[in-house]
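Pasting as-is:
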Amino acid sequence: MNSNRTWYEKFRDAFRGVRSGMRGQSSFQVHIFMALAVIAAAAVLRVELWQWCVLLLCIAGVLTAEMINSALEHFAKVVDKDHNPQLGEALDTGSAAVLFASLGAAVVGVIIFASRLIELIAKLRAQ
């Protein structure tokens, strides 16, 4: 590995990693769809700035966990092409990280969107 890479090369490699992490990963595509749905819902409900920040951090956390899990899967294929129980446990742990990030993000989304909906309904009733 060349430690004297330019910023252009570093970003090029990172975006190549995004493509590699997304390729053939149906779960990543689901996460992207859900991220877009959350962004649309946040825009429609006009959530506050701090809520936008929390939602975007949750999205970034889930996508990051998914990318790390994809990297583990690619690495495991190089290390051992046969069934290896230890690699299987590592891959399961990576999947669990994605699960925890996704569940945490879902709970945060429900809290933010439910509180915003309650606020909007209260305003409509007050009119």
